[in-house]
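--- STAGE predict ---
source: upstream dedup step, 1 unique chain passed
mode: sequence only
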Amino acid sequence: MVIYQLFITFAKMNYQALWRRLAQVYGEGEAKAIARMVYEVRYGLSWGDVLMGKDADVPQNELEEIAQRLERYEPIQYILGKAEFMGEWFDVEPGVLIPRPETEELVRWICLSPDPSPSKERRHFLDIGTGSGCIAITLAAKCPKAKVTAWDISEKALEVARANAICLKVNVSFQQVDILSESLPPLEGDGGGFSIIVSNPPYICNKEREAMEQNVLDYEPHTALFVPDDDPLLFYRAIAEYGTKALKPDGWLYFEINPLYAEPLCELLSAMSYHDIECKTDQYGKQRFIRARR
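--- STAGE serialize ---
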């Protein structure tokens, strides 16, 4: 009996065992980051707790299930139901795009942007294709005097985004709107108008699928990722056209983009009479963001 108990103790999966197992799929660095996230988010264990050996006390059946799902390339964010974005945890679930670190750079750029509104006016942001609500909610938190509206075509995404806004105690108006529709909500108030329209729309062409990671292709919503090969600027064109009517004078468009189409998008915006067009690289040196003034 004593020998059996010792075997069970030593057979327990801990942080070291988990990351070494995952390293066969993800590589050492990513495997360690995933394992730490499992213990921190699911079990509330800090790195200090792990060093003290508390990582061996978690439910082993549940941990084994998590390990197996990770070995099938299921995103850790969907397994845990959480994704970090600019220091806050957002609920996510299958059918809702997982927030990306690159998008944090877009939000920081917006927060540093000039305010096109007269001082007496309240800035109004519109986030098109809000997903988990990470952009809209972060803007509402960083700019508490601003009004924030967010659109998405997916009711599931809107349910998750509303829950995130409640959890993070910010006020965002979420609406189910398809930007490609011919019928869009009327502008509010006297003339209405937005100070800033921001979007991280679908921008990956179908022909790029082969170069994508399996965990993205197999699990994340394709409607939030892909555009037709013959019209890669589909959503940008629709949003920019809407912006010509919906942005206040000197209002800004902000986009996260596919680096392959940075130049044609700049040309499109210029042809639609936007000015002060600026392209910005991400942390990896890729042209990832564009802004333009109405």
